[in-house]
Amino acid sequence: MQQLHAADVPVALVSGRPLEQIDALIAPLQLPAAGIHGAERRGADGQVRRLALDSRVFAEIQQELAQACAEHPGLRFENKGIAFALHFRQVPVLEETARTLAEAFAERYREVLVLQPGKCVFELKPRGASKGEVIRTFMQEAPFVGRVPVFLGDDRTDEAGFEVVNQLGGLSIKVGEGPTQATLRLASVDAVGAWLGRLLEGIGVRPEDNDKSDRSECAP
To answer: What are its GO biological-process terms (predicted)?
Structure first.
């Protein structure tokens, strides 16, 4: 990541994580980024924009959803500040329980929330948040405007991004196995690192052999 930035290759991070977690992963860099599937976005100008739920409604959902999850030990509830996540990675048998809960809340609060399934998680995000739409927005702003978008991702939540990148004539790259709308595929995170190394060499930058900074930022 550092080397791409140093080579003046415009980079934006689009993730399901909150912006503060994205920044912690790439510190001391601070790049254009979208967190929580596009519910919050920081442009190249540094300005942060958020899709926020009404505070009263948010608190109501938080309390009710936390209580519902507490009835199922092993089902982890995460308050992301402007969205919610139900994690069942540690107890896979709770997948259908998590799905049922998430679907019920998405239906009950359908005017403000949408359901976003992911890897071992069901997320409830503000209506209007989309990795695809936030990529489209980035591509309309400097320094990305007029360039060919390249988007890599390994999660179901990245499919909306692949769809938009395909529409824009860019490169959509699925990391790992599974059905996808992406037009290209890399087998693993290590393969991503090798591919980025070749990209850097192609623009005249020689990546350090042991630099793994580009290999850890492929998660959704």
So the answer is: trehalose biosynthetic process
